[in-house]
Specification:
The chain is mostly helical and 135 residues long. The protein starts with 14 loop residues before the first helix and ends with a helix. The protein is globular, with a radius of gyration of 15 Å. It binds fe (ii) ion (FE2) (2 copies). One fe (ii) ion binds next to helix 3 and helix 4. The site of one fe (ii) ion has 5 residues, from helix 2 and helix 4.
Amino acid sequence: MGFMAWTDSLSVSVMEIDNQHKRLIDLINNLYDAMKMGKGKDVLSVTLDELAAYSVEHFSAEERYMRKYSYDRYTAHKTEHDAFIQKVTEFKQGFEAGKALLSIEVMNFLRDWTVNHIAEVDTRFGYFLNTKGFK
Ligand SMILES: [Fe+2]
Ligand SMILES: [Fe+2]
């Protein structure tokens, strides 16, 4: 079993978004595994880049649907996405500059943020998309 797992309880009732969340969780697990296996800075850096890039891609996809369907919680939802990207970017820069280490605390932050965001904010948005015909 990996560091974190996607389970049905994390479903936001929209398959396309669930699939993106599964990918995001895979990437967090990859980073955890690389850390646990004691991989060098180059491997960790590439893995971290993949996670950062996919987070941007996934958030953009959600935000595109929010704008398309005039979701009334767009700003609050996007603010959460932006704060996460900001944190990951700062950590990535610190890591690459040798000022920050990948630790279990960092991994726990990534996991907890992702689970909480999916369970609350994305789930609410998923129900909204259901009313627009998404499933
Ligand atoms: Fe999401
Ligand atoms: Fe989201």
